[in-house]
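Task card 7
Instruction: Convert sequence to structure tokens.
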Amino acid sequence: MLLTVDQLDVHYGHAKALHGISLHLLKGEVVCIAGRNGAGKTTLLKTIAGFLKPSKGSILFDEKPINGFVPEKVSLMGIRYVFQDKRVFGELTVRENIELAAYPTKERVSDSISRILNLYPRMSVLMDSKAKGLSGGQRQILLIGRALIGEPKLLLIDEPTEGLSAGIIEEILNVIMRMKGELSMMVVEQNLAVVSRMADRVYIMKEGNIFKEIADRAVIEQSNALEAYL
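Output:
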């Protein structure tokens, strides 16, 4: 088991955001977290990544407890969080964004660039362009590529297709599918058509709880069947 979350509670002040969340993720698996706005999906990812501290419960990564670890330590252990807001260093070039991400990992920049270009060859013509000129989809792919630097074991990806056109969503999905089987991923995603194509398992969240775990491929592959649980 790569990741085990057991009876996790998280509070924002006096307000309880997560209620006894328990889930797991296997090596090489893609698990999607689906649910309406406010269900607690992003809170869950941020807690695993170390940006929020749980008030109760445990998080095990590679069978080691990581409860309350700061994000930098969680990242160095091999968990990378790709934020929802598609924020890059706009005044830096794409190459400089990659160099900045590679620095703490000690990975050679040339290796980092090769890894990103293997996922998305079109990025080669954008290396010397300022990141602020990238489209939303290109920013998302850059962020996913940066997260791969240093060969992490687990990617936490928050709403990768939000606000993107159908054609760009297909490109993002293709990038994720190229990584499938080689890298474990937990993906928060509200587009159920995308979920049905990428997920090995799905957790449905409602009001800070895990409402349903779905492991049946016949159900996952039908977005309307997933919609019924929402």
